[in-house]
Design goal:
319 residues; five-stranded mixed β-sheet; three-stranded antiparallel β-sheet; 9 helices
Amino acid sequence: MSLSSEATLTDDAAAPVTLSIDGREVTVRDGQTILAACTAAGIETPTICWAPNLTPVNVCRVCVVELEGSRTLVPACSRPAEDGMQISTDSERVRHSRRMVLEFLGSANDLSQASEINDWSQHYGADAGRYASTLGDESGAETAHVDDPVRIQDDLYIRAYDRCVLCYKCVEACGDDAQHTFAIAVAGRGFDARIRTEYDVELPESACVYCGNCVAVCPTGALQFRTEFDLRAVGEWRPEDQTVTRTVCSYCGVGCNLELHTQDDQIVKVTSPADHSVTSGHLCIKGRFGWQYVHAPAFEPPAADTSTSEGPAPDNTGS
């Protein structure tokens, strides 16, 4: 292949694509997704399983949009934008689908700590309670609700499966997208599906290396810092009173950036910016959890011993 041919292919691959979103013309780079095009157009699109530092897995289906000529709604987070696409993000079909997904999630899970999901549920008028009332009126049955006890197996983070919406973010962060540990995966089928360790062993006995990247991407509080969990338990978790300070991890020379969340002059958790070129939001156990030394008491030298009386030193010469 000649150099001129290579240059032509490169130029073609980088050519922008133009599509229409809600009647507005939007131009993005070739290879970008419909979601990226929506963001470029200033159109907010709900997502649960998508994150900027993870591979889209298309499991929540809350970002779907209507594509002219397509039989089904398409996931905006993973579908590449194509030249000439006609996209609708707020049609009645889209709104109905998103509302239904949010209602299903709310009917089976505790979303009390999933603030973003709750905001979108309110936006679309989702009413998870209507499923329980309908079943109760007609058959006496009740909708199934995840009711697993909180798993506390160490001092670093907890697992509350009644909040888990199976978005798969934690599995991706533990696997190919970040840690390459593969300590967790989805096990079980249907309503009994849960995020589990291999053979469902306790976390300290599993392959987990406690990087906490799964905790960082969880959107519902199903995975949560032990510090946050304990403070919430006594009603002392106050995000509005917290400050976030960006710094560099002191453990090694890689240069990972940390975001220190502090409340009452105490670090309560550590995150990392998803757009940082070194971390992409991911950390190791030291950066994520190794901050307790900051709270160590200040060194105070022992007080001088003043119990002996002052006077001339004894004469030990024998004279």
